[in-house]
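Exercise 7b. Backbone tokens:
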């Protein structure tokens, strides 16, 4: 009996560790804030948002972009409170630089380490036609940041397939998730990594299999808006693509980094120099909020040994998040006033309605109006009204000083 139980626990431990290998976690395991905490979150979000720093990641290759370290920080501070301002920029190169197009408009090169095309540009374009067809899209208009020979040092994929993967992510963000910090975007990124799509010779099929079969709610069927967004590049049209064009323009303005220095993370425009771990990223992000009032995650997870577990599962060293025991003098008093008023009026409502429905409803309405006036006055010191029903999101799931790659089973279950 003991041997059977031991074997079963070992098997469950193996499954648990396999599911979140290398720190990647899926949306189904994510623990959202409880409903009773929503009023607390909504009461502070507007005042905190102005201090929330801008986080940006600059990357050359999809799949090698720090997202596995950012996931817990981004999702916890976006889902239900929308405080995490995050953008992801895929750095690209103009085909003019590689001799894939004749420069008719810009009059200059994109990245400072590239050489401009020679005088006989059209002859060079004709000579490079085959290479450009496999390295760029849109008749040589959009290309990876690395030239073909250098790209081979980083990945076995050809440049064209990488640009198409960037386009799929841009289309996905525009049509489905709206933000790179959305849990559904990380769900895709996790599957992309675990399915080995970046090493798959059929990268496009690998990506589409995830979108069709592993991410619910994304309409990627033939003829859909997503299909049209991506298929324009597949048709290899010579027209500009608005999404890729925006990425190209951002790359044009980039002066501080060369492709070999990427990926880079910036916080409020300054390069993040800390260790790429969940605890370092969370603490740095939290440090930008001045004053006593901080996001809930900054207080609750501040001293946890396993930051990833705290952010993803709302457990700090074995202690679950409980809004009733969560203390913060900035909103504790106002929340208690709201709870007491609601309970008191609810009891009175039952008694009044029992006495007579018609008069009872009129008196009840008056009582609720008085409660609302009292509530507004009570929370004036906090600086923001607390909605009676709280905020509800419309969405449907690093390392610390203790190695998160060896996550303890009791922290997961």
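Sequence design result:
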């Amino acid at each position: 009996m003991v041997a059977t139980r031991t074997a079963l626990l070992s098997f469950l431990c193996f499954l648990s560790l396999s599911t979140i290998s290398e720190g990647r976690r899926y949306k189904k395991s994510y623990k959202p804030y409880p409903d009773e905490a929503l009023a607390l979150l909504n009461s502070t979000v507007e005042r905190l948002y102005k201090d929330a720093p801008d986080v940006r990641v600059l990357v050359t290759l999809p799949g090698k972009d720090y997202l596995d370290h950012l996931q817990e920080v981004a999702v916890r501070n976006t889902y239900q409170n929308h405080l995490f301002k995050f953008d992801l920029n895929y750095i690209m190169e103009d085909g003019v630089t590689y001799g894939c197009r004749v420069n008719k408009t810009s009059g200059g090169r994109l990245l400072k380490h590239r050489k401009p095309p020679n005088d006989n540009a059209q002859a060079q374009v004709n000579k490079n036609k085959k290479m450009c067809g496999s390295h760029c899209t849109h008749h040589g208009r959009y290309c990876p940041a690395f030239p073909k020979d250098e790209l081979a040092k980083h990945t076995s994929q050809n440049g064209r397939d990488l640009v198409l993967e960037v386009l799929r992510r841009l289309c996905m963000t525009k049509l489905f998730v709206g933000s790179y910090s959305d849990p559904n975007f990380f769900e895709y990124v996790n599957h992309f990594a675990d399915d080995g799509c970046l090493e798959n010779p059929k990268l496009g099929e690998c990506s589409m299999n995830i979108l069709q079969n592993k991410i619910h709610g994304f309409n990627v069927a033939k003829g859909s808006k997503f299909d049209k967004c991506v298929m324009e590049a597949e048709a290899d049209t010579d027209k500009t693509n608005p999404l890729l064009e925006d990425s190209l323009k951002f790359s044009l303005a980039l002066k501080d980094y060369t492709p070999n220095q990427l990926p880079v993370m910036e916080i409020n425009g300054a390069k993040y120099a800390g260790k790429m771990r969940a605890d370092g990223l969370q603490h740095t992000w939290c440090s930008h909020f001045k004053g006593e009032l901080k996001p809930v995650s900054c207080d609750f997870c501040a001293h946890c040994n396993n930051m990833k577990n705290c952010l993803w599962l709302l457990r700090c060293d074995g202690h679950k998040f409980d809004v009733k025991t969560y203390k913060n003098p900035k909103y504790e008093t106002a929340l208690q006033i709201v709870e007491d008023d609601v309970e008191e009026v609810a009891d009175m409502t039952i008694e009044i309605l029992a006495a007579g429905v018609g008069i009872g409803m009129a008196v009840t309405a008056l009582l609720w109006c008085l409660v609302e006036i009292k509530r507004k006055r009570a929370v004036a010191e906090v600086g923001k009204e607390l909605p009676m029903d709280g905020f509800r999101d419309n969405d449907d799931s690093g390392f610390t000083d203790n190695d998160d790659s060896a996550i303890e089973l009791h922290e997961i279950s």
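Instructor comment: Confidence is low (pLDDT under 50) at residues 1-23, 105-114, 329-338, 378-413. Residues 55 and 267 are 5 Å apart (CA to CA).
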